[in-house]
Amino acid sequence: MAVDMAKTLMHTLSARLDWLWRVLATGHCFALLFGGGFLLAISALPVTRWFGRTPEEKDERARRLIHHTFRFYLWQMQALGLMTLVIRGREHLAQARGKLVVANHPSLLDVVILISLLPDCDCIVKGSLRRSLVSGVIRATGYTDNSNGDLMLARSSRSLAAGFPLIVFPEGTRSIPGEPLVFQRGAANIAIRCNADVLPALITADPPTLLKGEPWYKIPPRRPVFTITFFPAITTQDYADKAVSPALATRQFNRFLLDFFQQQLQH
Asked: In this structure, are residues 172 and 188 in contact, taking their beta carbons and an 8 Å threshold?
């Protein structure tokens, strides 16, 4: 009995120490993500942009720096034992050029993961982020904000025509666990009006973590596994009714995208 009690005590102590380590390491990573973003915006990003000859080349250089920064960040999180990252359907990334990369949004890390996998991507970001700690990064990279619909469409069209993958989260904000997905029409509108094909990316985290409204220090009981599954590109025109108005075609395609992601999440 004494041996069993000792084993139980050691197991409990080990679990507590693991939890404490992950809380401290998570705090470090959050400080690095937001504080590092601010430091990049006032140091490396301006220098990187200086070597570009055109506005487009300046943006591209800055985006590539963010890509490599996010790759290092995710490597560090895995090395610290905070997460495991699994990529499925990686071969479909070869189709990403000039595609709309549409993803669900369960976690704060989703955009970090996708940008780490897509070196030259553009990204639709919330206009409110221009008033946050990452505002300098958004300005330096030229990421497209959604505060002006017409301007967003024009900039999206230019990015896609230039061959850049364009990341967009149709939910507009992080998912709420246990509630059905709700897609805004922005992604479908870009796909229809810019005649852009879609590369779907399904993101899951098990156990769920870094949820909407959840403080950073509320960590799961074990290391979460983030799984990103890329699917073959969807040819938008195959699912768009050419006999209806663009507004109606957008609603129909949005419904198609929503059904697609709901079906995949149920598998």
From this structure: no
Residues 6+ positions from 183 with CB-CB distance below 8 Å: 170, 171, 254, 257, 258, 261
Does pTM surpass 0.90?
yes
Q: What is the pLDDT of residues 91-107, one digit of tens each?
A: 999 999 999 999 999 99
Domain of residue 262, residue span: 2-266
CA distance to 130, 139, 256, per residue, from 45 (Å) = 16, 10, 39
User: In this structure, which amino acid lies at residue 247?
Assistant: A
Tell me the C-alpha distance between 70 and 62, whole Å. 12
The residues pairing with 166 across neighbouring beta strands, listed in sequence order, are 100, 122
Helices assigned H by DSSP within the chain? 2-42, 44-50, 55-79, 110-117, 135-141, 149-161, 186-193, 246-266
Q: What is the CATH number of the domain that holds 199?
A: 3.40.1130
